[in-house]
Specification:
This is Peptidase M24 domain-containing protein. The chain has six helices and 13 strands. The chain is of the alpha+beta class.
Length: 261
């Protein structure tokens, strides 16, 4: 997962590859299923990012495509609206919500000129992740306030404020990583910093991820990050059956101009 910003305007991207895959050496089996499911779900989501579309439409189409390849989207994962200096800009799109998440997740409608980081994660398993023993190394500052007691915590927080602001950062990029690892504990315990946890699927399951940044323009959605993917390098017996979804994936991303009367 890679992100960058210019004057606080953010773009992010993530991609999954299978080493050695090509049209002449096709990848088959469950790897092919999850890669193709993630790819087509991303393409469908991209085409739905238009003014007036509800976020639930993206949730539903990702679910439909994943199930076509006998896969599951990672439960509860969010795609976020981006704003200047904000990675979580307000509106979100949820994947594979459980019953409580479906009830609590706020419905919204996409508007012209909004920006989103669309994050599609597909699993060969049940789509349920959990934290393990791996410690977080990426954090971001919150809007909470607290008077820190520890010297290392104060030094860390001052450096984060001056260098990173509200943007996510990695501990190894700070001046003294060892001291930062000590100071981060108090900052997290008092919610001054929010960790990005490392999540795991069940052993032997595979997860594919495609993430891109999209702008909602008058001419249709514009993808400004993302890498090319060749579906002909993968072979599976599964396919998309829903005719509406098949039509959506092959449709143009450009909006039809309004005819002048």
């Amino acid at each position: 997962d890679l992100g960058a910003h210019v004057d606080g305007f953010i773009a992010s991207v993530a991609h999954t590859v299978v080493v050695g895959s090509s049209p002449s050496t096709k990848i088959a089996g469950r790897k092919a299923d999850i890669l193709l499911a993630a790819h087509y779900a991303s393409e469908a989501a991209f085409r739905l990012m238009k003014h007036g579309t509800e976020n639930q439409a993206v949730t539903n189409v990702v679910q439909t495509i994943a199930e076509s390849f006998k896969c599951k989207p990672i439960t509860g994962m969010l795609s976020h609206q981006l704003k200047q200096f904000e990675t979580n800009g307000g509106k979100t799109i949820i994947q594979n919500p459980n019953e409580n998440q479906r009830k609590e997740h706020e419905k919204s409608t996409f508007q012209l000129h909004e920006v989103y980081a669309i994050d599609v994660l597909i699993s060969s398993g049940e789509g349920m992740t959990k934290g393990m023993d791996s410690r977080a190394t990426v954090y971001k500052k919150t809007n909470e306030t607290y008077v820190l007691k520890n010297k290392a915590s104060n030094a860390l927080f001052v450096e984060v404020n001056s260098k990173c602001g509200t943007m996510p950062f990695c501990l190894r990029n700070l001046e003294d990583e060892e001291k930062a690892c000590v100071g981060v504990r108090e900052c997290v315990s008092h919610k001054l910093l929010e960790p990005f946890p490392v999540l795991f699927e069940k052993p032997n399951e595979i997860v594919a991820r495609f993430k891109f940044t999209v702008l909602l323009t008058p001419n249709g959605p514009q993808k400004i990050t993302g890498l090319p993917f060749d579906p002909t390098a993968f072979q599976t017996d599964n396919s998309i059956i829903d005719e509406k979804v098949k039509k959506l994936i092959t449709s143009s991303t450009r909006s039809k101009p309004n005819k002048k009367k």
